[in-house]
Request: fold
Amino acid sequence: MGVTEDFDLGIDRIINEIKNRNARKVGLQFPEGLKRRSFSIASEIENKTGAEVQISANPCYGACDLDRQLLETMDLVFHFGHSTIREDDGGKVIYIEARSPVDLGEVVRKAIPLFEGIRIGLITTVQHVHKLEGIRRLLEEVGKEGVIAEGDSRIAYPGQVLGCNFSAAFSEDCDEYLYIGGGQFHPIGVALCSKKPVIIADPYLNEVRKVDTHAIMKKRYAAIGKAMNSKVVAIVVSTKTGQQRMELAKYLLRSAKKKGLQAYILTMDLVSPEQLLNFKVDVIVNTACPRIAIDDAGRYPAPMLTPPEFEIVLGEREELVFDEIRGE
Ligand code: SF4
Reply:
């Protein structure tokens, strides 16, 4: 997450939790945008509780990515900036969500003339999810019905999206969607998964625009095209708790072998181009975080495909769909 705001991280609650649980060893895990606040938070915890504090310096892109060293050795771990995805964390992890104080009303008002339908699905990331009810009321005043739908078990709040899960855009039928937040990835995902128009209201740029999926689809079809005559396939599996899709990888491995391809499962924690440099493969199939194939594919030594894209290469699927990691 690209955090640049001074979020209130609720340090008093953190101190109380440590005292109430009598935790003597406390781990802290931050996404990149909040790491700059780690030393002051650690010092405050040490001064006010006397607990020993360790900070994870590993990259952390989501709640799918719990620091296992901290989980094994600490009494309590505070995971900042993400909501729980209800994976098994042994009851040791407290999620400290960063709620944005940024006003959304102005940019949402700007978006209203772009709507053509009446039922508008409201979608955002966890930083703004507490503002969705206010936006629903704002739309009601102009005759639109704001729909805040539940997602599946990986989604902590109605209307919330993750980069790997757009289930909150499926559970209710809407005419179109309003994505409130920064960045392109989430609204593109909502548009490709729902096949409905999506308007972006970006409060950071104070800008509204319609999502255009043309460029991303062109890129993805180009990657599929390059992979069509592949002979050697690497199927990547992350060992991170919330990204590990070994069963899917095994299914893809069997399917590839049936088509006469040489296919291998490669396991790794953080998926990065450097770790794949010495494997001579024609195509990399990424079963870890779906964002990697979309955001970073160009950095890898061979075309990188998502599982549904690889199924197209194998002739087992026709329609290109966005990869998601679904819950129950
Ligand atoms: S798998 Fe990727 S998109 Fe999903 S929660 Fe983890 S980092 Fe975010």
In short: The longest helix spans residues 214-227. Residues 61-64, 162-164, 242-243, 289, 291, 325 surround iron/sulfur cluster (CB under 6 Å).
